[in-house]
Amino acid sequence: MAAGIPETQPVETMTPEAAAVEIADLAARVAEANEDYHGRDRPTISDAAYDAMKARLGALEQAFPDLAPVDSPTGKVGAAPAEGFGKVVHAQRMMSLGNAFSEEDVGDFITRIRSFLGLAPDQPLSLTAEPKIDGLSLSLRYEDGVLIQAATRGDGAVGENVTANARTIGDIPQTLPPGAPAILEVRGEVYMSHDDFAALNAEGAARVFANPRNAAAGSLRQIDPAVTARRPLRFFAYGWGELSQPLAGTQMEAVQRLAALGFVTNPLTRLCEDAQGLIAVWREIEQQRATLGYDIDGVVYKVDDLALQARLGFRSTTPRWALAHKFPAETAWTRLERIEIQVGRTGALSPVARLEPVTVGGVVVSNATLHNEDYIAGRDNTGAPIREGRDIREGDWVQVYRAGDVIPKIADVDLSRRRSDAPYVFPTQCPECGSDAIREPGDSVRRCTGGLICPAQAVEKLKHFVSRAAFDIDGLGAKQIEMFFADDQLPIREPADIFTLAARDGANLTKLKNRDGFGERSAEKLFAAIEERRRIPLARLIFALGIRHVGEVASATLARHFHDWSALVAAIDGAAAEPAFTAPDDKARRASLPDSPNWAELTGIDGIGAVLVASLVTTFAQPTERASIDRLAGMLEILPAQDRGGAQTEISGKTLVFTGTLERMTRAEAKARAEAMGAKVAGSVSAKTDVLIAGPGAGSKAAKAEALGVTVIDEDEWLRIAGAG
After folding, report:
1. Which pLDDT does position 42 carry in this prediction?
2. Angle at 400 between CA 398 and CA 401, to 5 degrees
3. Dihedral of the CA atoms 601, 604, 608, 609 (nearest 10)?
4. Of residues 54, 132, 302, 461, which has the active-site annotation?
5. Annotation says 132 is catalytic
6. What is the pLDDT of residues 269-283, one digit of tens each?
7. What is the model's pLDDT at position 32?
8. pLDDT, tens only, 391-424
9. Contact present, 621 and 576 (Cβ < 8 Å)
10. 3-state SS string over 488-501?
């Protein structure tokens, strides 16, 4: 790190409470930036800032999976297809890439791959390195050598049909030579060179684009192909989707095959044997960055052996076998005008720096996160100094740092230009409702104790409830929620009020259709959208409740495990009455309590921890909260969780537990394989466990499985079931 710029608090030292605040802040920022970048082609933050925030968010969610929000950028790719284009369902999802910002990240990437595959240190592992083009992802589908379809990435599953526009790009072949696979889906990046970008803006016929990436995206997504034809677009091919036959056995050979078929591929692609080789190529390409004539924002690394790529597979949105190593971003100095406190749906008081606008890396920054009161005071959550102990005050001249981890953030303070003699005093009362804001022992965050009486918490919970990844009610967004919450005649104060809105409007003398912002048609559409959401998948409902620590991943996990609402509620209510719940933070005591089957089942679900379960059970046990939840549930048709798509296998729908040491497949690969086959993987054995896979060294879990009559198999049988024997 540069002098004067503090290290970000390591994820492993963070409390769940501190992580929850940072995750919520980052997710909100990235969600809007994601739509600006992918959906509107008008980003308000730089690519480096977007990717850096997403990287930090991913690291936090990996360490605290229960806190991952359902609409997190780590669970999404791109943005929904825009109106005006036909939609194309990708035969294979178009994934995004995980990011690295340091040499240590690259080393960790190699370590994770070797660990997942169970490779010994002396076993070779070749990887490719290629420039990461800063453009717009495009998929080209060829059948029998003829281009039949071109589609943008969209949200990864569904993209925009831009076939007519893609046909105007000279780098894209219309037909392929003999020998090409009968079905070939080529993937690559549409971009614009620096010279062509400057000439386009100089013409004055089109809007002035902020950068070549925006120009390329806006040009490709023209409704009129004739406009696209006049724009100097180019295309680099780097990958593929659906194939009728393999292109080659390695990544490098497959890219060379694409070049032989007539596609333009990047000549800077290199083959490397280790992390040092990758980093050497990264440095070489970084030095050439300014002279390439087109924008790149990093270097992409990929496992070369395609068979190993297949074994490594994918996470929800990213491949395990690829990584984007980004270039560093920039810093700038500006005035911190004031510090504002925002109250979130969990009551957390989050400080935000309002800055005199400054350009950092080509993007105007006017706000920055300040995390919590310790960060403002110049210390971390252990009391150790950060910024050499320099605190942050209103009126300070501050350095804004936009790279790597949290973006944007205050990196340093210029004490020589300080105006105020008084340190900033963090409020001990909620600025929204006046309730005490307390900081519990071990928590880095101060929280409002007002609960439902706090309008900020209530409004934020309602906004969360109607968010895109929760109930996603068309016409009822954040602005409408604020309006209805403040409305005395037709108020929405809790989720159930949404589903009585139409009936209450019918009984009112003043109708919604006669109010500002609404007409007869818009009111009808809102009521229809609400009615449509009475049928809601279980996972969405769980997440929409806004329970602390229960994010998208945990919601989906709980839904898959319990399948329906009544089973989940029964387990939660049962756990509330059990001895273990009286001491959720006392691990030793919980372990000695045999009469807590519901608590054991909940905490035994793989990925569901005691902190999350305690939050879940506490929420349902509070009379006011429970009454609100019950009112809501009574108005809905809650759809049971569906089994994962794909063919049925002999372990579909079953709960598996792995114990002991697997000798021919790593635990991570085994878990991924089981889940891909439709099974659930739990962390502990219970009466609901179907199969225990016991490797050498199996201990108490094997004994418990035998006592419960659970089927126990060895690694050989597991490999047969997994098709890897």
Report:
1. 55
2. 140
3. 100
4. 132
5. yes
6. 999 999 999 999 999
7. 72
8. 999 999 999 876 543 457 888 999 999 988 899 9
9. yes
10. CCCCCCCHHHHCCH
What residues are paired with 130 via a beta bridge? 300
Structural contact between residues 481 and 473, judged by C-beta atoms closer than 8 angstroms: no
Rounded to 5 degrees, φ, ψ at 520 are -60, -45
Per-residue model confidence (pLDDT) at position 354: 94
Sign of the torsion formed by the C-alpha atoms of 684, 689, 693 and 699: positive
Q: Write down the residue that tokens 């194939």 correspond to.
A: 243
CB atoms near residue 261 (< 10 Å): 19
Domain boundaries 538-639, corresponding CATH code: 1.10.150.20
Residues 6+ apart with CB under 8 A from 494: 458, 462, 628, 631, 632
Could you tell me the two tokens for 514?
């006669």
pLDDT at residue 85, as a whole number: 67
Confidence of residue 443 (pLDDT cuts 50, 70, 90): confident
Residues 6+ apart with CB under 8 A from 514: none
Query: Degrees (nearest 5) of the Cα angle 81, 83, 88?
Result: 45
Residues 233-251, buried b or exposed e (16+ Cβ, 10 A)?
Answer: bbbbbbbbbebeeebeebb
* CA dist 296 → 48, 266, 289 (Å): 11, 12, 7
Neighbouring residues of 688: CB distance < 8 A, sequence distance ≥ 6: 601, 655
In this structure, the number of other CB atoms found within 10 A of the CB of residue 668 comes to 16
- Where do the structural domains in the chain lie, given as residue ranges? 11-76+329-417, 87-326, 454-493+500-533, 538-639, 655-721
Q: Which fold has domain 87-326?
A: D-amino Acid Aminotransferase; Chain A, domain 1 (3.30.470)
Placement of tokens 């906004």 in the chain: 463
Six token digits for residue 681: 């993987």
CA pair distance 230, 41, nearest whole angstrom: 19
Could you tell me which of 364, 363, 360 has the C-alpha nearest to residue 330? 360
Q: What integer pLDDT is reported at residue 284 of this predicted model?
A: 93
Tokens of 345: 């749906």
Name which of 659, 661, 655, 657 is nearest 643 in CA terms: 655
Which pTM value belongs to this model? 0.53
In whole angstroms, what is the distance from residue 85 CA to residue 77 CA? Answer: 18
CB atoms within 10 A of CB 273: 12
CB 77 within 8 A of CB 96: yes
Chain CA centroid to CA 592, Å: 37
What are the respective helix, strand and coil percentages of the chain, to the nearest 5? 40, 20, 40
Under 8 Å CB-to-CB from 492, ≥6 apart: which residues?
A: 462, 481, 484, 485, 498, 501
Class of domain 11-76+329-417: mainly beta
Amino acid at 61: E
pLDDT recorded at residue 525: 92
Domains 454-493+500-533 and 538-639 share a fold: yes
Average pLDDT over residues 233-250: 96
Average pLDDT, the chain: 85
Cα(7)–Cα(4) distance, integer angstroms? 10
Rounded distance between C-alpha atoms, residue 106 and residue 329, angstroms: 18
CATH number of 655-721: 3.40.50.10190
* CATH topology assigned to domain 454-493+500-533: DNA polymerase; domain 1 (1.10.150)
* Alpha-carbon Rg for the chain in angstroms: 27
Q: Residue 326 in contact with residue 101, Cβ under 8 Å?
A: yes
CB 152 within 8 A of CB 136: yes
Instruction: Provide the b/e sequence for 688-715 (b: ≥16 CB within 10 Å).
Output: bbebbbbbeebeebbebbeeeebebeeb
Q: What is the mean pLDDT of residues 432-451?
A: 85
What is the token pair recorded at 107? 């080393």
CA distances from 600 to 42, 399, 540, 577 (A): 49, 49, 24, 13
**Closest Cα partner for 35 from 101, 79, 96?**
79
**Angle at the Cα of 551 from the Cα atoms of 545 and 554, rounded to 5 degrees:** 105
Residue 201 has pLDDT above 60, yes or no: yes
